[in-house]
Amino acid sequence: MDLKKLGDVPKSYVKEILNSLSKLDKLKKVPFFTGIHFKDTEDDLNKKIDDYRKVDRESRRIWKIVELSRDDGRPQYQDYIKGIFTDFISLSGDRLSMEDQSIMAGLGKIGGRTVAIIGHNKGKDIKERVKYNFGSSIPQGYRKSQRIMKLADRFGFPIITFVDTPGAYAGIDAEDSGQSSAIAHSIQLMFELKVPVIVVLIGEGGSGGALALAVGNEIAMLENSTYSVISPEACSAILWKNPSGTRLAARALKLTSKDLLRLGIIDRIINEPIGGAQNDPKRMVRIVKRYISDAVGRLCKYSGEELVLKRAEKFENMGSFIRE
Q: Which residue from 36, 117, 219, 228 has the fewest beta carbons nearer than 10 Å?
């Protein structure tokens, strides 16, 4: 066997292959084994190395997308508000306790039509990121979004949400304030809305914190955004208790726009400028504006009952199972 083939194999696999080689050497010393057995074993090891290389290439490619989704230069929620909507009015507070600045909500206009806009703030520098809690929302933020959704439903305003969060804030104070309940009520409410709901994933879409704003009639993802039940880092820590498996976790999670479109989780991929949205933020905003304008026009043709039914059918058809 040519040991040079091990050169490009991920370090996490090398130990396993070396153990197999050691066993093979021991077998060669047993007189009862013939050469054909060794040849078959060597072929199996070579195939395993080639498979590992393929997995590693895929993991590197997917991790590049994860890095792009987190790039500081990507246009953020406030950039889309400024570039897409006119006469935007921010509405604050959940009318119960406090204001969560990690979620911004309000009313604005697009093409002369009034819409409700809700989305995650991340911040572009460390000062803003601390202010907006790095885009990780607390219960008050989700309750505020519910208040705006109910307002939009009452007056017949389409709702557009922009998702960009690593996940809901996992602090003890957030849990004590009813984090899981706030997310669950947000999901339930979005299924009941009788107005068009358009969801655009513009960066990270992490766990329930993303899903709380992502139950829509149309769900679109920017080409290099991500959407998953858990972050790759957290998945690796749980499964392997080792950060070295982060890229493998990203591959296993199927979190890219192409994976999710194939699985039927999203409806549309919004192409980004060459190299990513960070290379031409203004153009990216114009592309998203065109998509939202078209989507609002399409969905406003349906009645409230039809919108509720179509939204429910969309999520009921997600996933697959094998009947035995």
A: 36
The pTM score is 0.83
Model confidence over 34-57: pLDDT tens digits?
A: 555 566 666 676 677 677 778 778
What are the tokens at 29?
């010393």
Identity of residue 194: K
- Terminal CA-CA length for the chain: 43
How far is 35 from 38, CA to CA, in rounded Å?
A: 5
Q: What is the pLDDT of residue 134?
A: 82
Q: Which of 33, 50, 69 is the last residue of a domain?
A: 69
Scanning the chain, the segments in alpha helix (DSSP H) are 11-28, 35-69, 77-84, 126-131, 139-155, 172-176, 179-192, 207-211, 232-240, 246-253, 257-263, 281-299, 304-316
242 within some domain = no
Report pLDDT digits (tens) over 14-41.
566 666 666 666 656 666 555 555 666 6
